[in-house]
Amino acid sequence: MAEQAEVKSIDAIAMFRSDIIAYLAKVRPLLDEACDEVTRVRNWLESDRRVFWENKLRRLHRALMDAQQALFSARMSNLRDARTAEFMAVEKAKRAHLEAEDKLRHVKRWNKEFDPRAQLLVKEIEQVRSIAINELPKAVMYLGQILKTLEAYAAVASPSERRATSSPRPEESEESAPLPPANPATDHEP
By residue range, what is the domain housing residue 107? Predict the structure, then answer.
C-alpha cells in the first residue's frame, strides 16, 4: 500500500522561499562591493600610493640636498649660529627622507604580498557569489514549483475522502432508502 504524503505547512516553505529572495537582494550587492573593494585597494597600492611616495621621496631628497648645501655654505662662511640651524634642518630632512623611504618600501612590499593574500579571500567570495547568482535563483524557482504542486495536492481530496463524500455509507443507505410498497396479494401465505 502506498504511503500518503503528510503536508503540515505550505506556509513554512513559502516563508523559506521569501527569505531566500530577501537574502539574495542583500547579498548580491555586498559581494559585488567586496570584489570591487579588493580591486580598488589593489589599484590604490599599485598606482596611487606608490606614485605618491615616489614623488614625495624625490621632493624630500631635493630638500635634503638643499639643506646639506646650506650647511656646507654656512661652514664655509664660518657662521656659528647659522651652522646650528642648518645642521638641524639637515637632520630634519634626513628623518623625513628615511620615513618616506620606509613608506615606499612598505607599499612595494604590499604590492607583492597583496595579490597572494587577497586572492584566497576573493576566491571564496567568488564561490559564494557564483552560488548567489546561479544556484539560489534556481532554488527559488524550484521552491515555487514545490509550492504549486503542494497547493494542487492539498486542493485535491484524497481518494478515501472522495468516496466518503460521493456515495453514502452502507448503513445510511439502508436506513434512508425508501421502502418498497407492501403488496397485499403477495404478502399472504398459501
Answer: 10-166
